[in-house]
Amino acid sequence: MSDVLAEHIEYLTLPGRNALYRQAIEATLRPGERVADLGCGVGVLGLFCLEAGADKVWGIDSSDAVHLAREVMNRCGYGDRYECIAGSTFRTVLPEPVDLIICDHVGFFGFDYGIIPLMRDARQRFLKPGGAMIPQALDLMVAGVSSDECLAKADGWTRDCVPGQFRWLDRLSRNVRYSHQFSPVDLIAAPVALGHVDLAADEPDFFSFEAVLTATRAGRFDGLAGWFDCRLCDGVRMTNNPLVDESIRRSQAFLPAEESFPVEAGDAVGVTVRFRADDTLISWTIQPPGQAKRQQMSTFKSTVLTPADLVKQPARPLTLSHEGKARAFVLAQVDGQRSGDEIVDRVLAEWPDMFPSEQAVREFVKSVLAHHCAV
Ligand SMILES: C[S@@+](CC[C@H](N)C(=O)[O-])C[C@H]1O[C@@H](n2cnc3c(N)ncnc32)[C@H](O)[C@@H]1O
Predict the structure, then answer these.
(1) Which pLDDT score, from 0 to 100, does residue 222 have?
(2) Are 97 and 127 a contacting pair, CB within 8 Å?
(3) Model pLDDT for residues 255-266, shown as the tens digit of each residue
(4) How confident is the model at residue 1 (pLDDT cuts 50, 70, 90)?
(5) Which of 35, 66, 105 most suits a substitution to test ligand 1, by most atoms within 8 Å of the C-beta?
(6) Whether residue 112 has its Cβ less than 6 Å from ligand 1
(7) Looking at the predicted structure, is the pLDDT value of residue 2 above 80?
(8) Backbone angles phi, psi at 309, to 5 degrees
(9) How far is the centre of ligand 1, averaged over its atoms, from the C-alpha of 372 (Å)?
(10) d(Cα 312, Cα 309) in Å, to the nearest integer?
(11) What 3-state class would DSSP assign to 147?
């Protein structure tokens, strides 16, 4: 729970964010309307909707924060108008359509926290025809970066203190999307508009945006800064633009160049950013000035492939792993009669060496029951 508190205090204390959401809710919601708060966290956006006259809010969150939301609403006297659903929005079925879907899934670069599939799914399954959405759209901005601090993030694996056997990981670490709080001095090319994502439209599954950056001074070009200018509703915008006072101070995205390169003031640097709506992969290219080779980076290149990735190959015959068999065995003991303690005892009696120690078996059984049993 302490991680949840540490995470959510960050959202609640971003300068100006709560006021912007309140403003958008007041401009959008009519008294008596019904709302789905997607990824409700501790319930802050749903609370603003109830205060603005919503009749009913469903707060959905896949983390423990949802249990805090329930407690908050009970304490505020909204317990009968706020219903918490613990789980993923993608697996949630609401009893009736809503007038408004709301979330703050706006990532460092706007699109990079899964807002596109989240809003699309909720719009198609939860929202009344003609219903409203907050946010409505994202404008993506990109700028050129020259920053020792950013370079140190992308270059971490080459540091002297890292044993030599790990230095090859440097090639991968140039293909990672980092978060960073940029200051104006970190930017070597002024921001330009990269692209627009309309969350209310049936957008394509694949986005490909291009831009040309112009260096504003001579120096070393280390990569791209990306941020959002988000339309919460008509007339209310929220941004993490590091160059403006009204920024909510959410970090921006840093996309490194494969190799830093020198630029002169006035040089043009070509940029593409591509991503799919439904997954977390981002690829980007940077064309340095002159005849230099175009650099191609992708978070795919830094993805660690695991046995789970092989399982995703559809034609491969599958067998259960040891843990899979253990999980199936535990769940088969749940018969609507036995208590948790009785199931633990039964598993220990029937399969005592499921894990190397009795303690490990007990912990495993309890965690399986906690995840899969209704109370
Ligand atoms: C950025 S926080 C926002 C919390 C809160 N709405 C706010 O504005 O402060 C996103 C929350 O969404 C939850 N979340 C992410 N994806 C989700 C999904 N598909 N279904 C349910 N909850 C999700 C996370 O657990 C997290 O609590």
Answers:
(1) 97
(2) yes
(3) 999 999 999 999
(4) low
(5) 105
(6) no
(7) no
(8) -70, -35
(9) 21
(10) 5
(11) coil
CB of residue 298 inside a 6 A radius of ligand 1? no
Amino acid, single-letter form, for residue 15: P
Q: Is 65 in the pocket of ligand 1 (CB under 6 A)?
A: yes
Sheet with 206-214, strands from edge to edge, namely 206-214, 268-276, 282-287, 295-298
* Structure confidence by residue, pLDDT tens digits, 275-285: 998 778 999 99
Residue 92 CB–ligand 1 contact under 6 Å: no
Name the average pLDDT for the chain.
Answer: 95
Say if ligand 1 is within 6 A of residue 122 CB. Answer: no
Phi first, then psi, for residue 68 (nearest 5°) are: -70, -35
pLDDT at residue number 8: 95
Centre of ligand 1 from the C-alpha of residue 246, in Å? 24
- Residue owning the nearest CA to atom 4 of ligand 1: 41
* pLDDT of amino acid 203: 65
Of residues 168 and 239, more confidence is placed in 239
Supply the pLDDT for residue 99: 98
Q: Which of 7, 61, 113, 230 to mutate to test the pocket of ligand 1 (most atoms within 8 A of CB)?
A: 61
Q: DSSP string covering 277-325, please?
A: TTSS-EEEEEE-STTPPPEEEEGGGGPPP-HHHHHT-TTS-----HHHH
Side chain identity, residue 67: H
